[in-house]
Amino acid sequence: MTTDHGATDLLRRLDRLPFTRVQFGLLNVIGVGAIFESIDILALSVLLPVLSKHFGLTSADAGLLASASLLGMAVGAVIAGVLADRLGRRRIIMYALGAFSLFTMIAAFSPTWGFLFVMRTLAGIGLGAEAAVLPTYLSEFVPGRARGKYVGTLSGYLALGGFPTPLLAYAIVTPFADGWRYFLFVLGLPVFLLLWWRRRLPESPRWLLEHGRASEAEAVVSDLERRVEQRLGTPLPPVPAGKPVGRPQPADPPLQAFRRLWSGRLARRTAVVWVAIFAIQFCNWGFSSWAPSLLVSQGVEINRSLLLTAIVQAGAVPGYFISAMLSDRISRPKLVAMWMALTAMCGFAMASWHSPMSTVIFGCAVIGANGAAIGAIYTYVPEQYPTSLRGTGFGSANAFGRIGAILAPIIIGFTVNGLGAAGVFALLATVIAVGVIVLVAFGTRTNNQTLEQLSDELVASPRSQPVSRNAE
Questions:
Q1: Over the stretch 278-317, which tens digit does the pLDDT of each residue have?
Q2: Fewer CB atoms < 10 Å away: N or C end of the chain?
Q3: Structural domain range at position 136
Q4: What are phi and psi of 443, to 5 degrees?
Q5: What is the CATH number of the domain that holds 387?
Q6: What is the DSSP string of 151-163?
Q7: Is the CB of residue 409 less than 8 Å from the CB of residue 286?
Q8: Would residue 242 count as lying in a domain?
Q9: Residue 55: inside a domain, yes or no?
Q10: Predicted structure pTM score
Q11: Three-state SS at 246
Q12: How many domains does one find in the chain?
């Protein structure tokens, strides 16, 4: 194997940087986009009753419209993952955000529900593209010793957008005849400001090195070193020693990249994360889409159910951040499995009590535990793949999770009348149990290891080169 001592030194310089406001400033710029992602994901669930009345939708039409954003996100995740490996992380993040904002604002002027469906799908492609690249991008800036906390905190921004969504709908939609149009326009407008804020985002040094652009990677790392040292007011710690990394490997063509996901040792990693993320998203969307209806069935008026749903969604806020704090202390497969199991237990408790208050209390617990699982899995998935395949790997897993999100409301809608609340939660718990078993039995421990160390363990194909084994 040929090695690259310059790349080795550069990555060690990056990984030894102390955490300051410089790194968290990068996290904040990225995280604000995740807030809008969360608002958009939940928007249709709170707007659907209004849209059904406005356009005279049948149940089938309403179900199709509700799935538009998720369908777009699944497509966007796959496309963006491949393009991020070939064209760069930063470029895809910027283009994706612009597409989401543009099509969301156009959707506000929809003359028919068919036009709205198309615009929501296109906005979903942009949103799914961004969501698929953000964790990959951030994971490539931080060392293994703190990657769980750093990337997991990104998922916490999802919660910050989740619980205000019903409140925004209540404030903007209910007072006006065309309030849903104002809601969509307001949702898309601030994102253009975020594009301006993100204009100075650096490209991932790991991606630049992988594509032979060492001088640009050097410039990014040197700028980070300068800013961190300036923030600390003291000299930076010395660069640790370690084995050199392998020579850069260009990204595969798309079809070959997908084949690599299912070859050699990568096949096991891919299967594990696909099963886990499918189970988590199936439960998340199964519960989120059903909770407002459950409250209404218990005699809660629709307007009040929106307020109670907001309280339930607020349960995700502590879940995400607690998970981020624990992510570097507990083996990540076990941590994800723990949160998934807790989700199932809280769900059974919720199904066993029959009052609006118990639904809200246990609903908060379900959303919190499931949010914690999402935060941990979003850290875990990018760690499974080498830099040349990381975008494709995470994007594909994210898209498969979206399929679970699409299927859950459909399956629950067909079965809830026959199974009842307990039966629905039994279904969700069964899906979760499969994910827990797979994670515990076959998951790979990733804590406190560099991305290069984790890639070194793979023999996925003749092109899979070992990289660094330097300890942090």
A1: 999 998 877 766 665 555 555 555 555 556 666 776 777 7
A2: N
A3: 10-234+254-456
A4: -65, 150
A5: 1.20.1250.20
A6: HHHHHHHHHHHHT
A7: yes
A8: no
A9: yes
A10: 0.85
A11: strand
A12: 1
